[in-house]
Amino acid sequence: MSLPIKIPVQTRSRERVEQILKTAKELIGEKGIDAVSMREIAQTAGIQIGSLYQYFPGKSNLLLTIMTEYYDSMYEETKRILDPVRTIEELEIASEKAFKQFISVFQKDPALANLWAGARAIPELVSEDNRDTYRNADLMVKTMIRCLPNLKESELRPFALYFSHTLGMIVRFVREIDPEHGKAVLKETLDLLKLKLREFDSLAKKKTKIKKR
Question: What CA–CA distance (Å, rounded) separates 13 from 32?
Answer without folding.
Answer: 26
